[in-house]
Amino acid sequence: xxxxxxxxxxxxxxxxxxxxxxxxxxxxxxxxxxxxxxxxxxxxxxxxxxxxxxxxxxxxxxxxxxxxxxxxxxxxxxxxxxxxxxxxxxxxxxxxxxxxxxxxxxxxxxxxxxxxxxxxxxxxxxxxxxxxxxxxxxxxxxxxxxxxxxxxxxxxxxxxxxxxxxxxxxxxxxxxxxxxxxxxxxxxxxxxxxxxxxxxxxxxxxxxxxxxxxxxxxxxxxxxxxxxxxxxxxxxxxxxxxxxxxx
Length: 247
Ligand SMILES: NC(=O)c1ccc[n+]([C@@H]2O[C@H](COP(=O)([O-])OP(=O)(O)OC[C@H]3O[C@@H](n4cnc5c(N)ncnc54)[C@H](OP(=O)(O)O)[C@@H]3O)[C@@H](O)[C@H]2O)c1
What we know:
Layout: E1 22-30, H1 47-57, E2 62-66, H2 67-73, H3 82-90, E3 98-103, H4 113-116, E4 122-127, H5 132-139, E5 145-148, H6 153-164, E6 169-172, H7 176-184, E7 190-196, E8 223-230, E9 236-242
């Protein structure tokens, strides 16, 4: 069930901080707090959620995933919509955002569109912990491989996106591990969450954000609600701003 009243091309965003891109996360989650069904996110969002995911992408210069999401669903920044591509071009942007993936293992299946589709620019951020043979093999596939220091990989990738690829805004589309790493390091400005009217059940926890160790009060990040838009589909589309230390 679509809802023409909700249109994410109309959103606006603040300017990026001086030293990195503006970073937003976008996730879809069931009412019982899970983000994965049968190994991917595909069973969770409606057609409306898919449309809004693409409309959100139009505002961003790059879309980023972690390696596990790449393996589960692929990483592509395509909009699949000439109207949205035109929207970007009219504003001086490329038709599709840059697709970026972060990996330590280098285990990125070569048959993915990321490697074959040249309609969008793509980049791999590979941890310095990866062996040189892994880097060479990835480089042989024709997408740039940027080695980032293991101890500060996420921040280094964002710096490269901003300074090397002139990306002012980066949309992180999961999964929970990459989201967690970025939030924990204070590198996320906004969090978009689709709450799907579904209970998945099951005994595996797949939250929207995670990092090692049990949750502690001292690590909690406070959010400010920017909007909460209920749709006829039963979904609730949430936009939060992540509070900075001292807010
Ligand atoms: N519901 C939703 O909206 C949604 C959205 C996205 C994904 N998902 C689902 O989430 C699941 C995957 O989530 P996940 O938490 O397991 O994994 P993830 O965040 O997608 O990926 C984690 C991986 O990212 C790479 N990575 C993260 N930090 C790194 C660093 N500092 N340096 C180098 N590489 C780094 C590593 O890749 P390597 O393993 O390659 O070394 C790491 O194992 C999938 O099932 C996917 O379908 C759901």
